[in-house]
Amino acid sequence: MFCLVCFDIVDDRIRYRAVKILKSFGVRVQKSVFECDSITEEQFIKLQRRMEECIDCSEDSVRYYILCRNCISRVEYSGIGERPGNASYKVC
């Protein structure tokens, strides 16, 4: 499965730990956005559990967007970067 993870974390120390967790599951595509390509449901549950243990739920938020392969093929973007799945495609 493909999962896009976005976060808004207030504390720098917690943010650093969250980034470290996310890097072990995916690729950073923006400062607070990670793409986790081809993770299993078991890995996704582990990722969620680790993030929930890391963040302060009263101040921080993490969002997980599960995308199907058809949706991934329709992703558009502008500027630098690569399309999910490592295809070299750019809008501009």
Q: How many individual domains? A: 1
Helix content: 25-40%
Structural class: alpha+beta
CATH architecture: 2-Layer Sandwich
Main beta sheet strand tally, sense and closure: 4 strands, antiparallel
Provide the succession of SSEs: EHEEHEH
Number of strands: 4
Q: Count of helices?
A: 3
Q: What is the mean predicted local confidence, pLDDT? A: 89
In spatial order, strands of the major sheet run 2-3-1-4
Categorize the overall geometry.
Answer: globular
- Rg of Cα set: 14 Å
What do we call the CATH topology? Alpha-Beta Plaits
Per CATH, the class reads Alpha Beta
Portion in beta strands: 15-25%
For the termini, the CA-CA separation is 28 Å
> Unreliable stretches, pLDDT < 50, 5 or more residues?
87-92
Describe this structure in words.
A four-stranded antiparallel sheet has the order 2-3-1-4. Strand 2 (27-30) and strand 3 form a beta hairpin. It has helices spanning 12-23, 41-54, 69-73; strands at residues 2-8, 27-30, 33-36, 61-67. Helices cover 34% and strands 24% of the residues. The chain has a single domain (2-73), classed as Alpha-Beta Plaits (2-Layer Sandwich), CATH 3.30.70. By secondary structure, it is of the alpha+beta class.
Give a short synopsis of this structure.
By secondary structure, this protein is α+β, with helices and mostly antiparallel strands.
Keywords:
disordered C terminus; 4 strands; single chain; globular; Alpha-Beta Plaits; 92 residues
